[in-house]
Protein: K+/H+ antiporter
Organism: Roseateles puraquae
Amino acid sequence: MLHDIAAGPELLTAAVAALVLVAIAGALYTHRFGLSHLLVFMAVGMLTGVDGPLGLPFDNHRLAVNVGNLALALILFDGGLRTRWVDVRRGMWPAGLLATVGVAVTALIVAGLARAVLGVSWVEGLLLGAAVSSTDAAAVFAQFSASQLRLAPRLAATIEVESAMNDPMAMVLTLGLIAWLTPLGQAGDLRVAGAGDLLPLLAEQLGLGLLMGLGGGMLAAWWVRRLPIADDHDGLAALLMAALGLLLFAVTNRSGGSGFLAVYLAGLLVRHRGERVAVMSLPGLNGYTWLAQAVLFLLLGLLVTPHEVWRLIGPALAMAAGLMFVARPAAVVLCLAPLGFSWRAQCFVAWSGLRGAVPIVLATYPVLAGLPDGWRFFDVAFVVVLLSLLVQGPTLAPLARRLGLDVQAQPGSAAAD
């Protein structure tokens, strides 16, 4: 009897460990071809899911959203800790434009494409556009690290800061548009404001996120500087940082602000004011963020039903191509051309708008809200992310070198852009 009781947890542990081992081994080999490690984790999840050899059914979108939010919070806090304040100041203005005006323009153009390709209404098209409009901080940080690119400081800061700042805008637009499509202002498991409150909701999210990020970051930096953390406490420092980031994320969200914006700003301030402890924590924190990404992409892979995605593959590919070659470039030119960015820099910023977990997580919200076509948004967002990681990710470094933007490869060239 005791053997039967223990068999269940042991089998589950063995299965999960085996999946992670297969995913890690595959990721190490695919990395040689410039492909994102995250693709392998998603592929393993799909092979494990309902259409894969194991055929495990999984449709818990609420669990995927909760895990996704925590994973993204940890990733953004880690990204803030890795970014120097001087680099942020260089890219704040262009990144801010891309994270606000750029997201709105991208969503509007995608809405027109969705209306033509999918036959949806303008509001539904805007909902899909909002879900896929933000670039993904995890994908951008991982790809820059893997490709070992050295860009001009202003250009690198613009891309990295934008990827961390545009999630709140995309999330608020997504929630507001879901409210627009649900007359009572309450959609399934999601509590959102009415359509007329979209701008106040955006102001509340960004305003409170900004205030709590700055306040929480300064308080956290003051505290960690006074803790007796020795040089051999790197493991404890990583655990401390992870706990601080998740605590601030939860408190900010509970208060009505954007936890994503708050944790990124707090990470920047902790790095600026408590650099010794922040830098010490980075190796250990890197392990936590990898674990978070691995679990998230495994879950997202499990959620996908390939035979249903295949039914929409033509329109979904058209939407992905329209986003990469029309919507994103148009938003970049509109935001960066007036600021003096060269055409080379604009081309690279447009192509570096990688999509990752954020669009898929946001695309689960219409499913949770019970919208009739919610599953279509999720399938299209999945194809958009898949194509972005397959096409844009591996070509990012070669494009930078081709345009003369890699400072290391082309010293004294156009990299000064």
